[in-house]
Amino acid sequence: MQQVQISTDTWVSATWEEYLQVIGHQAYAKAKGYYYDHRMRIEMAPLGHDHAADNTIASFTVNLFCGLKAIPTQGLTNCTFRKVEFEEAQPDIAYYIGANAEAIPWGTTIIDLDTYPPPDLVIEVANTSLADDQGAKRLLYEDLGVKEYWVLDVKNVRVLAFAIENQGSYRITESKVLPKLQISLLQTALQQSRQTNQSQVVAWLISEFGKE
After folding, report:
1. Mapping DSSP to helix (H, G, I), strand (E, B) and coil, where does residue 154 land?
2. Which helix (H) or strand (E) holds 124?
3. Of the four, 13, 23, 67, 110, which is 20 to 30 A from 178 by CA?
């Protein structure tokens, strides 16, 4: 394959074929790829401790809540969701919930959204990409038909949650795909993780969920 060089961590005009060439190149083997509105974004920024730690807290919060509430769920980390020739996303975390929990068969690599449903919940952990996660990626997930979208603002330790309906979105304080899960609880867990280790955050979450 020819040497491919593009501007990374920004949106670049590209055809679908150009996008596939870039993400298939060995230079971008560890990159995350997005394609929307005839533009591609290749994210090369190192994730680092803070991004990884918040990712872990978010995943554990959702998994623990679903486990304790007996909500069927399937969580996916850095999975690729594709509408061929139109859109592609590789969110930090995605969840299929309830009736969709077993929608994707084992052995699937890239999830073809012309064949399978989109995830019910998508989470992006924003350390250096907050503006984009709130902007273009939010529009992308609206078009893909995701039901709920959370952005974890690492630097300001807050959670921005959006319900998606009819290719539009609006802020929410309680999850709609995970009823009774307050968004503020995840935000508090993230804030506590700045002061203590994760096992203590987990103990606090178990206590809080047990009150419901």
Report:
1. coil
2. strand 121-126
3. 110
Helix 48-68 to helix 183-193 angle (10° resolution) is 140
User: Residue 152 and residue 141: Cα distance in Å, rounded?
Assistant: 15
- Give CA–CA dist 196/76, Å, rounded: 27
Q: Nearest Cα to 25, choosing from 45, 49, 1, 42?
A: 1
- Please give the torsion angle defined by the CA atoms of residues 83, 92, 135 and 97, in that order, rounded to the nearest 10 degrees: 70
Q: Which residues pair with 40 in a beta bridge?
A: 12, 35
Residue partners of 131: CB distance under 8 A and separation at least 6: none
The residues near 112 (Cβ < 8 Å, ≥ 6 apart) are 82, 83, 84
pLDDT digit string, tens, across residues 102-116:
999 999 999 999 999
- Name the token pair of 66: 């679903």
pTM of the model: 0.95
pLDDT digits (tens, 9 = 90+) for 123-143: 999 988 899 999 999 999 999
